[in-house]
User: Which sequence fits this backbone?
């Protein structure tokens, strides 16, 4: 069993930055992902990290602007978001999967555990 709790969301002007956190409780080697869902849209993958942190996948829409990192000592994941755009406005979720690969990392159905989400709003 894994429990995920996100924090750090808020409202920011376009061009600004936010850092989201995801505290992980429980044990296991999981692929960890960040997803987002805007009103009226499907949930989409933002970034995903392999269990050892050796590989990180990013959606094309956030490459170069978002950075996924982790602090093993704190059991916490981070999503540093820079140069934010109004199109980044969404509920952001942290998720854990038993297995994914480069072709499947962005598919929500592959992730077993989910946090409750944190809202990010970017104003123009």
Assistant:
């Amino acid at each position: 069993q894994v429990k995920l709790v996100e924090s750090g969301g808020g409202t920011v002007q376009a061009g600004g930055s936010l850092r989201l956190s995801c505290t992980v409780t429980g044990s296991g080697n999981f692929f960890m992902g960040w997803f987002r869902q805007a009103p009226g849209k499907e949930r989409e993958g933002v970034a995903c990290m392999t269990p050892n942190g050796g590989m990180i996948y990013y959606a094309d829409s956030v490459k170069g602007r978002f950075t996924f990192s982790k602090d093993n000592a704190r059991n916490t994941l981070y999503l540093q978001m820079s140069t934010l755009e109004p199109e980044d406005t969404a509920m952001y979720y942290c998720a854990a999967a038993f297995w994914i690969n480069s072709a499947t990392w962005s598919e929500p159905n592959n992730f077993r555990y989910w946090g409750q989400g944190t809202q990010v709003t970017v104003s123009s």
The chain has no helices and eleven strands. The chain has a mean pLDDT of 97. The CA atoms of residues 30 and 98 lie 5 Å apart.
